Amino acid sequence: MSRHFERGVIASPGIIKRLPQGFQMERSLSAEELRYYIMYWDKIIIPGNNLVYIGLPDEETLINAGAIERPTIGFNGSFFGDQITDAILSCQSIVAKDLVRDKKTDWVIHQLTDECAFPSNYNQRRNIIRVDISSTLPAPPANTNVYEILEFKAARKDELANLHLHLDSLYETILSSPDPELASKKAISGLSSAIADLEKVTNERFTKTRKFDFSAELNLSGKDISAGAASGAIIDFFSTGMTIPLATVAGAVLSTLKITSKTTNTFQPASQNSKLAYLSTAKNHNILD
Q1: At the top level of its lineage, which domain of life is listed (predicted)?
Q2: Do β-strands 105-111 and 275-279 pair in parallel, antiparallel, or remain unpaired?
Q3: Got the DSSP string for the chain?
Q4: What is the model's pTM?
Q5: In Å, how far are 55, 196, 247, 248, 260 from 252, measured between CA atoms?
């Protein structure tokens, strides 16, 4: 488990739905979701394009602070109907296809949906293990000054790094073999402690926080698992799902971990990575005053 690389996220600027003719822009990223990204990733890339540019809240301020990057994908020629939709939906994949192979930064692709959607030339249908962790990651509210978040990250880099490391350890544990005693493993205990530690220091700094749900899709064909029988055994073991309580304070469950196997769309350029994608349904819980 490496401790010497930065962590990056390639995010979509919003929720864009394909229609029979054209597309629907459901919404852009919220100011709160942007602060969630800034809190937990070292590098945040949110691609735009020269056909239909989707602006973000506080965009200029966040760019000037070095908190996010907004590279613009340039498309040449005339675009009509579905060609515009295809171009808009391809921007995240165009930027991500090379970054996910970067050995110096741990890049993940992130979408605000319940299942990833990629253009056909980047899409691959495959079996995965999905890890859903509810009400876990505290993040400051929408009106928080970005420099305050960056200062907090610098001051609490050990707690934030510890959370990522325990998440990585959990993913490796899940992929190593199906295990009915997973709940008692060191990875679960370590993650619970990391969540509790981060909760404490975040609430000491910010007068309000919101807790975000998140999901990770893990690659059964990646380097952390043997092919063939082991892969099939894990799919079978988690086919009905497993739910485990995490991080308790005075007996109260603060978060739950759910592990399931499923077949879904994955990002083909990340086919050798252990983490294929992160997802969020844009839900948040437990406003703390």
Answers
A1: Bacteria
A2: parallel
A3: ---S-EEEEEE-SEEEEE-SSSEEEEEEPPHHHHHHHHHH-SEEE--EESSS----TTHHHHHHTTS-B--EE---S---THHHHHHHHHHHHHHHHHHTT-SSEEEEEEESSSS----GGGEEEEEEEEEEEEEEEEE--TTS-HHHHHHHHHHTHHHHHHHHHHHHHHHHHHHH---TTGGGSHHHHHHHHHHHHHHHHHHHH-S-EEEEEEEEEEETTSTTS-STHHHHHHHHHTTT-EEEEEEEETTEEEEEEEEEEEEEEEEGGGTTSSEEEEE--S-EEEEE-
A4: 0.89
A5: 40, 12, 8, 5, 24
- With a CB cutoff of 8 Å and minimum separation 6, the contacts of 252 are none
pLDDT by residue (tens digit) across 217-246? 998 875 555 454 566 778 888 888 888 888
Encoded tokens for 178: 């199906």
Convert the pLDDT of each residue in 22-39 to its tens digit. Answer: 788 888 999 999 999 999
